[in-house]
Amino acid sequence: MTQNIYNFMLSKERVQAFLKEIEVEDLVHNFQVMGDQVYIDMTAHSPAMHEKKKLEVAMKQAFASEFGGNVEVKLKIASPEPTEVQKNQIKGKEIPGIQNIIAVASGKGGVGKSTVTANLAVTLAQMGFKVGVLDADIYGPSIPTMLDTEGGKPTSVTVNGKELMKPVENYGVKMLSIGYFSGANQAVVWRGPMASKALNQMIRDADWGELDFLLIDLPPGTGDIHLSIIQEVPVTGAVIVSTPQHVALADVRKGIGMFTMDSINIPVLGLIENMAYFTPAELPENKYYIFGQQGAQYLAEDMGIPVLGEIPLVQSIRESGDIGRPAALQENSVLAHIFKKVAQNMIESLVERNTNLPKTEAVKITTMAGCSPKK
Ligand SMILES: Nc1ncnc2c1ncn2[C@@H]1O[C@H](COP(=O)(O)OP(=O)(O)OP(=O)(O)O)[C@@H](O)[C@H]1O
């Protein structure tokens, strides 16, 4: 790249040459230079939202390093029409009545994925949405504890002549978990196909009714169970939960990478940073960034996904999880407000996703390389 040593006015020819130099000429269909502002209309390589964000960040960085901070790039990035290949990646297995299926994932265990799922679920329900939670964490199903339905037993109902499981319900949230079924202890040793069969039954052979959101609390990490679920279930988008520590962030890249692989291509709606800072109960205004600050922001920017919110490390979140009444239910509290903002940001990201991309159906995985251990 040439050095930023130009003192003359920005010209259309210079911008044209630069677009060629950074090899995006083919993607740009129109551009105009007006003083220090460059207006560019272009099309992303793929319709995935993270691709558009990545392109935007890369273009802005490239222009800043070439022309300096005074030049402002105004981008309009369109989605390409889905190609035949992309259309073929999608398998027709829509679940009637369920509008949006959101996978909640984490790169590693213990970052608060289930806590976030439970709080988001009750928040969405309080906002007036119809919400379901599928606890797919077969290694340690904690949704029954966190939503106070331990010992719950899904009953059987007949719907249109078919016998279905009726989800357990509390706080306006319908839920199913492997924890409700006998033999839950054995689930820990299940391989992908078995887990996905059980989970599939909990999704398809259950009377969820009409749902705006079905949140799936995935097991921690990345592996064959995740791939099996993604293969079978038409996930609309994924939400990634992380803590600020460096190790968690390294793992979270893997987690995001699992969804954004070309062969899977599930949009990542955003990153939720849990335990982002510590706030003592007696000093609610004070924030202590024990594990470092802004790591999630940098990572999200780098990977072209939004940060949906920062959730503090607060004793009452753990306590309320243990007693099965999510902290977000504390009316007019700071925590309720934080979870509401996270839910709103998630919906915003989802609306953008649903506007820009074709309806997701179950993903046909063409290669499992790099994600799943060979059996
Ligand atoms: N923001 C928070 N503040 C305080 N405690 C929290 C917070 N988030 C989670 N915890 C606590 O951390 C512990 C782990 O949380 P949780 O079970 O939600 O993690 P997880 O990522 O779902 O774990 P796994 O993936 O291993 O099942 C729980 O005791 C929970 O109450």
Automatic annotation (TrEMBL):
Note the InterPro entries from the entry.
Mrp-like_CS (IPR000808), Mrp/NBP35_ATP-bd (IPR019591), NUBPL-like (IPR044304), P-loop_NTPase (IPR027417), YlxH/NBP35 (IPR033756)
Q: Which CDD domains does this chain map to?
A: Mrp_NBP35
Which GO BP terms sit in this record? iron-sulfur cluster assembly
Protein origin, superkingdom: Bacteria
Coiled-coil segments on the chain, per record: none
Q: Which GO terms describe its molecular function?
A: 4 iron, 4 sulfur cluster binding; ATP binding; ATP hydrolysis activity; ATP-dependent FeS chaperone activity; metal ion binding
Q: Where does ATP bind?
A: 107-114
- Alphabetical UniProt keywords: ATP-binding, Hydrolase, Iron, Iron-sulfur, Metal-binding, Nucleotide-binding
State if GTP-binding is listed as a keyword. Answer: no
Q: Which family does it belong to?
A: Belongs to the Mrp/NBP35 ATP-binding proteins family.
Q: How does it assemble?
A: Homodimer.
Q: Which PANTHER family match?
A: IRON-SULFUR PROTEIN NUBPL (PTHR42961)
Role of this protein: Binds and transfers iron-sulfur (Fe-S) clusters to target apoproteins. Can hydrolyze ATP.
- This chain belongs to the protein called Iron-sulfur cluster carrier protein
